[in-house]
Hints:
233 residues; alpha+beta; 2 domains; 6-stranded mixed beta sheet
Amino acid sequence: MPEAIVPMKALLTETPPKGDEWLFEIKWDGVRAICFIDDQMVRMSSRTGNSCERQYPELSVIGHQISARQAILDGEIAVLDKGGVSRFSLIQSRIAVADPNAIAHLARRTPAILFVFDLLYLDGYDLRGVPLVERKRALASIIQPSAVMRVSEHFVNNGEELLSAARATGLEGIIAKCATSVYQPKRSRDWMKIKIVGQQEFILCGYTAGERDHFGSLVLGLYQEGELVMWAT
């Protein structure tokens, strides 16, 4: 089984592509995770390759809900609001927490769900060169959905309808994927993301000095894959 996987990424576009070759999924607003299952043990890595399973102890049971000895899954860890909509603001406080007691408290207060959308490896077979639609078929056959893990559903050739439904329910957007695409360790036109929400929550970290008695600019921060990135506006 591969020790590391570089996640495939989607290009940003404004409108959904058309054609029967396109599959459409909800864009979950959370944390991307590559999940390694080995004899029911679970290891997770973020988009940047950092280990992240300790932040989400409630997901440690997913190894028992997969009908495979070894598997590598691609998915999104998300926290849902009362309306069932994923909100990054709800999971943001969990990303960089290291204290075990705090982690346990957050797992109870804001439990996470893993939405799985791809299967990259299964019991000795590397599936990254297999067409997406076949990988999804294999994924659905081995997953036992539960309160902490679900298969992210896909729809065929109805991007505009799904986008309208996502907009009406306050979701972040949708993802379009070519049904015949192989899994590539890069950003590819075979996957496209169409975002609805044009806003982002930032952390106010401080300000820079300006002329005389005035400040120069605000310093904003944003957690990206567990690391706080700051810049002056």
